[in-house]
Amino acid sequence: RAALHAGLAASGCPVLDSGVCPTPSVLLAVSRRAIGGGVLVTASHNPIEWNALKFVGADGFFLAPEAGEELARRFREGSPEYVRFDRVGRVEAGPDVETEHLEAVLALPWIDAERVRARRWKVALDGTGGAASRLALRLLERLGCEVEPIHCEATGSFPRPPEPRPENLGDLSALVARSGAAAGFALDPDGDRLSLVAAGGAALSEERTLAVAVDFVLARRRGPVAVNLSTSRAVEDLAARYGVPFERSPVGEAHVAALMRRTGAVVGGEGNGGVMVAALHPMRDAAVGIAIVLQAMTDSGRSLAALDGAIPSYAMRKKALAAETPDGEKISRALRERFGEGRRDERDGIRVEWEKSWVQVRASNTEPVVRLLAEAPTIGEAEELLGTAERAILS
User: Fold this and answer.
1) Binning pLDDT at 50, 70 and 90, where does residue 245 land?
2) DSSP character for 62?
3) Cα dihedral sign for 273, 279, 282, 286?
4) Torsion angles phi and psi, residue 108, rounded to 5
């Protein structure tokens, strides 16, 4: 943090430091101000050793790949331009971006806080010891919830694997079951991903968060939907149900946000629990996901499990293989040979799709791994697709 202050100030940039806060709070704050951009120190859902800088453009969106590559090129050249001592930028306390974010979520046209408050929902919250716990707790308080918190102290270390996936949510599932909560919410450390636990303690796939949110938004405002190439087909089926356009982009929030802006999408996101709502700002946001789930339960009078059950369901399997420098051409060639009969998309690794199933192999943007994903109507079919893909690329 101090090094970031020093580098920016020495380059003549005035610095507004808003302290520890969720990633989407910063994106929203930048989008609503006439400032040059933003920088976050975060590892997001990755372990602490992956802490790094994430750069936000003046429009409140993460830098597009081309801009990111230009920034990296300038860094590698190692020729920073420092200003004279009398032009060094000042470092000042920044705005309360968390409160601004909270009020913006509550001001969304389909969020009726009074109505949700009247239900007095009992919920559980797993903040994974990250920066987003405080905002989530404040939001739930404003929505009149009785909250059973776990891992909500921002200690700087994570008490569970930080990705909010079902296999990492044993503590939250047990808390939901023990407390009789109507729902459980699991955050990633910086608050851009959300997973759900139904009453009784059943953890839903992280893919279901976006599906529930898309169903809610489209029921209130019809419009295009944008997701990434790794997101469950359930969202595509929902778009068809509502009769709205549907498009996919390469993986990454910046890609999905750009597609949302280009197509005028009203809702979108990523199947890792990233909900993106255009009425707020096209960014992944756990807080807006929490508000939507509670409003959906309130409006429908149905449980989270019932909301989930009304959405098309598929079985998805995911696997990561360690690979420092994956041979993309070799992988693509192997999959083209093995799955020659399917429809191929090679914008992000290679994705092969059939009528009700698909398989994808791609290099991760954030870790030295190759990700394998397969989705089909049954677990057996998904596992067979995944296994076939793995054997093809390892042979």
Assistant:
1) very high
2) B
3) negative
4) -60, 145
173: its two tokens: 């599932």
> Could you please report the per-residue DSSP string of 68-100?
HHHHHHHHHHT---PPPGGGPPPEEE---HHHH
Q: What is the DSSP string of 235-291?
A: HHHHHHHHT--EEEE-SSHHHHHHHHHHHT-SEEEETTTEEEETTTBSS--HHHHHH
Mean pLDDT over residues 193-200, rounded? 99
> How many Cα atoms occupy the beta-carbon half-sphere of 6 within 13 Å?
3
What whole-number percentage of the chain has pLDDT above 90? 86
Instruction: Work out the average pLDDT over 127-132.
Output: 95
Q: Supply the DSSP symbol for 14.
A: -
Domains, the chain, ranges and CATH?
2-95 (3.40.120.10), 315-394 (3.30.310.50)
Residues 257 and 148 sit within 8 Å (Cβ to Cβ)? no
Cα–Cα distance, 362 to 385 (Å, whole number): 15
Helical H runs in the chain?
A: 2-10, 23-31, 65-77, 97-106, 113-119, 133-142, 170-179, 207-220, 233-242, 253-263, 286-300, 304-309, 328-338, 379-394
Per-chain mean pLDDT for the chain: 95
